[in-house]
Give the backbone structure.
Amino acid sequence: MLKFSLHLNVFLVAAVVFALSVSAHGIGQKFEKEAGPYLVDIGSNTLTFRAGDIIALDFNILEKETRQNAEFTDIWMRIEKENKIFVAGGLSKARFGGTFLSYVFPEAGEYKLFVRFQNGEEVLAEMEFPLVVEERKNQQSGFSGFYSVVLSFILGGVMSAGTMLFFRKKQV
C-alpha cells in the first residue's frame, strides 16, 4: 500500500507540473478574431509578454456558430516587428492536445503575429494580431516557471513523506 501511495503522489505532482508548464490556454492573454464562419483563437501562457522569457502560444480555430473545433491540417505563421521578420514557418496540427509554439522574444516592442489556418490546400482563415512585448525586469515578481517546478517537487516530497508516516503509524 505504501508503494502505491508513493507512486500516486509522484504521478499527481508530475501531472500538475506538466499541466502548468505546457498549458497555454486559459491562464494568459487570449486573442480572438472572427474570420467568415470561423473564430480564430490564440492563447498564451502569460498575461505579460517580456523580452527574454519563454512564451507559449496555443493556436486553435473554431466554428463560429457552434464553438466546436474546426478541422485544420496546418498553420503558417509569422512574427515581425517594424518589417523585420523574427520567425516564420509552418506548424502541423498536433495529433493530441493543442498546436503550440514556444518562442523567446529577443527585444521589447510592438510585434505583429500573422496566422493562416489551412485544411490541406484550402485557406480557412488568415489574420494579424498585435503583440506588445515589455522589457524584461531585473527582479521578477511572483513565481517564475523554474520556481514553480521546484515548489511543486517540494510539495510532492512533503505529501509523500506525510503519506509514508501515516501508513507506518497504522502498521505499528
Observations:
- Confidence is low (pLDDT under 50) at residues 20-25.
- The helical segments are 2-22, 145-171.
